[in-house]
Amino acid sequence: MTAKAPGRPGWWAPLLRAAESAEGPAAERVIADHLLPHDRESARSASVLVLLKEDAALEEPGPSVLLQQRAATLRHHPGEVAFPGGAADPGDADAVATALREAAEELAVDPGTVAVGATLPPLWIPVSGFAVTPVLAFWSRPHTVAPQAESEVAAAHQVPLPLLADPDSRGTVRYPSGRSGPCFEVAGVPLIWGFTAGVLSWLLDLGGWSRPWDADRTMTLEGL
Fold this sequence. Notes:
By secondary structure, this protein is an alpha+beta fold. It has helices spanning about 10-20, 25-30, 95-105, 160-165, 195-205, and strands at about 45-55, 60-70, 80, 85, 115-120, 125, 130-140, 155-160, 170-175, 180-185, 190. The strands form 2 sheets. Strands 1, 2, 3, 4, 5, 6, 7 and 8 form an 8-stranded mixed sheet that branches. The chain has a 3-stranded antiparallel sheet with strand order 9-10-11. The longest helix has 13 residues, at about 95-105.
């Protein structure tokens, strides 16, 4: 039996081992490109912070993930639930630097409280033309966070992974093109769909938290 790292919960090391063997092409299939695609060759770099913490408030302690709700006034993806993150800046050293900078700018996440575990294979999003690197991290010293610019971020949400894994929370969104993608319905949080839902579904698989669910259960997304 492998001992867990000091200060890290038992689920962290197995998740990192699974991340080491994760393959990008398989991950890309979780993304629903329901609009006209961009060329892969011209993809722009971006990163998101998949920030997990041990949630002692759960019946059985386990991980929760930090998400944010985009402002309803934004031109692109208004009101959607997303990971902290965004496009790379010229001064960013790498994908990790981008994710940490964006999380600090959007929610005031202190980079000093974050232990980066792994970068997952970049996911190409044909809809926006970005190649997005999910940065898997453990929140070793969680603290209060809040939107730093109301014009960009409306709210922060800490969502337990066991709740996302509950079959009653899971469903499928179907797009006008005929394609479909996973989604999650959680009380107090707008419907989670698109890229964010795809990465969360992938995360549940990587961590061994997935449970059988009805993929034929269709949920409606307003505006589609």
